[in-house]
C-alpha cells in the first residue's frame, strides 16, 4: 500500500471520530445536564432534567409516573422505557406509590406522590394532538416533531396549524392550545414572534376577510380591555396593545432567540403569568437550548484532552490503520446492537440517542 493511500485512510479516521463526537455531543446535550449516578429526588423539583417513563412498571391505564436518568439506569435496566427528553420542575417518582412492586435502589425514602409534577399522555408513549406513538409504525409520512415550550408535548410539524420556519432548531414553539389558554401571548406574538403562514387560514380562503376580522376582534378585545384596565405604568404589554397590531390567532407560534427577555416584568404581568403557571417564560435559562449548552460545556470540561486523539498522534501509520479496522468493526457491531432495541421500542443505555429525532 502506498504512502498516499495510507494518508487518505488516516484522514478518514479523523473524520469518523469527528462524526462520532457530534453524536456524543447530541447525547450529552440531553444527558450531561443530569446526574447518571444519583437519584435526583433529594434535589426536589429539578428545574430541568432528562425524564423517562417506564411502561413495564406503569403500563397504560395506570397512573402516569416519571423517573430520573440515574433511576432509568439502576432501577429500570432492561425495562421498556419511553424517553421524554427533558421536563421542567419535575421530581423523580421512582419507587413511590405508583410503583407497587418496585423500590428505588438509589433513594428508597420517598413521599407517596409528587403533587407538583405535571404529566401528559407522553408518559404513556403517545404524542401530539393525534395521540400517536413515536416512532409510529402506521405512519409512513416523514415528519419532524417539535416540542411546545409550555405544555412540553411533542407535535408533528403537519399538525401545528402553521408553517414550520427555517432554522427551527434555534427557535421556541408554543402550540395553539397553549396560546389560546394564555391569550395575552397573542399580543406578544403580533410583535415578537417569527412571521409565519397560517395553514388554517389558507384552507379556509373562501371565508370573507370581514368575517375573519370580526372573529379576531371578538377574541382580542376582552383580554385587551382587561389588560389595559389592570396594567400598571411602564407596562410593555400595555404599550404593545396600544399599537394594536393584529395577528391571526390560530396555529402554533414560533419565537426567535431572546424573545423571553422582551416580555413585560411589571408586577401586574408577573402576577398574570404566575396565575397562569407560565412564570418560567420570563426565565431565559429555562430554555432547552440553555440546558443543552450547559450539558455540552459540562461534558467538554469533564472530558478535557481526548486521550484517544492524543494516542493517535503517537502511533505510526500502520498502527493507525489497524485501529481503523478495529474501530469500524466495533461501530458496526454497536449499530446492530442498538437496532435491536429500536425494533423493540426500548431504550439502550449503552449509547443514548434522543427519542425525538435530533
TrEMBL record:
The keyword Transferase applies. InterPro entries: UBR7 (IPR040204), UBR7-like_UBR-box (IPR047506), Znf_FYVE_PHD (IPR011011), Znf_RING/FYVE/PHD (IPR013083), Znf_UBR (IPR003126). Residues 202-230 are annotated as: Disordered. Pfam families: zf-UBR. Keywords: Isopeptide bond, Metal-binding, Phosphoprotein, Transferase, Ubl conjugation, Ubl conjugation pathway, Zinc, Zinc-finger. Its EC number is 2.3.2.27. It comes from the Eukaryota. GO terms for molecular function: ubiquitin protein ligase activity; zinc ion binding. Gene3D superfamilies: Zinc/RING finger domain, C3HC4 (zinc finger) (3.30.40.10). One of its GO terms (cellular component) is cytoplasm. Pathway: Protein modification; protein ubiquitination. E3 ubiquitin-protein ligase which is a component of the N-end rule pathway. Recognizes and binds to proteins bearing specific N-terminal residues that are destabilizing according to the N-end rule, leading to their ubiquitination and subsequent degradation. This is Putative E3 ubiquitin-protein ligase UBR7. It comes from Labrus bergylta. The lineage of its organism: Eukaryota, Metazoa, Chordata, Craniata, Vertebrata.
Amino acid at each position: 500500500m502506498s504512502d498516499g493511500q495510507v494518508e487518505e485512510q488516516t484522514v478518514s479516521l479523523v473524520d469518523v471520530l469527528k462524526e462520532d463526537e457530534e453524536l456524543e455531543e447530541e447525547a450529552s446535550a440531553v444527558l450531561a445536564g443530569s446526574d447518571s449516578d444519583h437519584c435526583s429526588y433529594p434535589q426536589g423539583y429539578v428545574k430541568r432534567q432528562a425524564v423517562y417513563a417506564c411502561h413495564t412498571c406503569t403500563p397504560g391505564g395506570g397512573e402516569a409516573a416519571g423517573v430520573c436518568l440515574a433511576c432509568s439506569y439502576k432501577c429500570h435496566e432492561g425495562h421498556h422505557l419511553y424517553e421524554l427528553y427533558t421536563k421542567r420542575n419535575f421530581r423523580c417518582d421512582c419507587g413511590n406509590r405508583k410503583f407497587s412492586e418496585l423500590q428505588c435502589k438509589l433513594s428508597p425514602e420517598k413521599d407517596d406522590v409528587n403533587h407538583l409534577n405535571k404529566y401528559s399522555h407522553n408518559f404513556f408513549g403517545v404524542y401530539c394532538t393525534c395521540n400517536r406513538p413515536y416512532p409510529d409504525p402506521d405512519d409512513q409520512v416523514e415528519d419532524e416533531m417539535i416540542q411546545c415550550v409550555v405544555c412540553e408535548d411533542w407535535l408533528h410539524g403537519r399538525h401545528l396549524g402553521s408553517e414550520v420556519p427555517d432554522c427551527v432548531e434555534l427557535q421556541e414553539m408554543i402550540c395553539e392550545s397553549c396560546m389560546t389558554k394564555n391569550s395575552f401571548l397573542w399580543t406578544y406574538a403580533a410583535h415578537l414572534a417569527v412571521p409565519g403562514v397560517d395553514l388554517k387560514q389558507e384552507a379556509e380562503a373562501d371565508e370573507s376577510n370581514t368575517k375573519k376580522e370580526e372573529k379576531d376582534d371578538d377574541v382580542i378585545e376582552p383580554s385587551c380591555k382587561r389588560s389595559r384596565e389592570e396594567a400598571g405604568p411602564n407596562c410593555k404589554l400595555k404599550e404593545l396593545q396600544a399599537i394594536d397590531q393584529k395577528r391571526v390567532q390560530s396555529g402554533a407560534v414560533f419565537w426567535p432567540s431572546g424573545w423571553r427577555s422582551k416580555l413585560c416584568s411589571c408586577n401586574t404581568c408577573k402576577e398574570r403569568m404566575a396565575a397562569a403557571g407560565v412564570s418560567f417564560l420570563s426565565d431565559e435559562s429555562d430554555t432547552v437550548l440553555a440546558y443543552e449548552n450547559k450539558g455540552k460545556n459540562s461534558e467538554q470540561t469533564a472530558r478535557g484532552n481526548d486521550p484517544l486523539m492524543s494516542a493517535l498522534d503517537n502511533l505510526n501509520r500502520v498502527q493507525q490503520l489497524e485501529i481503523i479496522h478495529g474501530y469500524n468493526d466495533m461501530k458496526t457491531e454497536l449499530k446492530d446492537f442498538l437496532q435491536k432495541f429500536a425494533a423493540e421500542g426500548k431504550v439502550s443505555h449503552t449509547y443514548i440517542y434522543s427519542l425525538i429525532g435530533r
